[in-house]
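Tutorial handout. Part one gives the primary structure; part two gives the three-dimensional structure as tokens.
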Amino acid sequence: MTGTRKTVAAGFLLPALVLLGALVVYPVGYSVQRSFFDQSGSGFVWFDNYAEIFTDDAIFTAVKNNAIWVVFAPAVATALGLIFAVLTERIRWGTAFKLILFMPMAISMLAAGIIFRLVYEQDPERGVANAVWVGVHDTFAESSVFPRARPLPVHPLESGGGGSFVTKDPAAVGTPALLPLVGVAPANMPSDAKPAAAAQADPGDGRISGTAWLDFTRGGGGKPNVVDPEELGLKGLKIEAVKDGEVVASTRAGPDGSFTLPAAADGAQLRLPGDNFREQYNGVSWLGPSLVTPAIIGSYVWMWAGFAMVLIAAGLASVERELMEAARVDGANEWQVFRRITVPLLAPVLSVVLVTLMINVLKIFDLVYIIAPGSAQDDANVLALQLYRSSFGTAADLGVGSAIAVLLLLLLVPVMVLDIRRTRRERRR
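Part two.
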């Protein structure tokens, strides 16, 4: 009967073994074999393909980026999942909160990549990340009034260094100070700017009066250094009076461009500080060479933190509450209960989540391929993406591609062995 049962068992297992051999064992074996041959597959090159992995800059960057992914992405996702799992137990709408956090798991990597490609757009009017960043920045830092504004050679202004402009002649009481500029599109002028008003200097007033205006008439026909009827005042333009390198007075132009300085400005040069013309802050280059990998890791955490939270919350539900209550009775605060009771009891679940995510990030491909623009794809490169790039296309080298595939397998094996050992320990318990 034993022999018959073994035969029956082998008969049932045979289809699965055939599929396993055809879909797993044979491809792995062929990849190992192909990794020792050249691009054409006809020349045996020993370990040259493996050496190229660590000498080619693009492939070596992929190895380094994979190391960053393995260290940070699973750790951050697991930590956030733990925090969310613990906190959701204390709020009334915990189930709804968990559902919201888990929803990104229902989105494919392709869709998530497209979403975050838009989120990380450089233009603040399109990219949510930069819209928030620019909003916070502009709250604490004053933005420029007229970026790229400048005088013409015929204007009574010249460069003062540091992006500023100064008058060619000192200001004098009784002489209108004219500060004309160009380089600002009429459509970009302040909405409440008014037609410029020519300054009327009064010698007996003792003050310096002047006008700062956009010396440009739409459709042409205006005269330089003359306030024409259709020209607008440069509202908010900052004007400083400088004597011997020190600012003795300052003011800002009104809606019609008019301004007034006290008598102390008599004989001083009028300066338009560079802050008036500084380029507007456009946010952070999230998909630039230095931040593209952290940005993509952020999108991965957004997707998988909910997965970690659900598994950890399931483990937390089985933790004995008596231990926590006993610790609180003994005088432990919430942080001590969390660190010395909750986390140690959740260690098996945390290890499951961490190992699962480590295996997952070693094979990451979709997010990097979709989110990283072509100009930054080399900086965001990972092994799975480099495997695709090396194995397909006009310059495909299946020898190098197979070597990368074998390297990925070798990197996965230790993680899988740790997971198997952990599973066996759990069964013994």
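Part three, for discussion. The domain at 34-132+286-428 is CATH 1.10.3720.10 (MetI-like fold). The chain has two domains: 34-132+286-428, 157-276.
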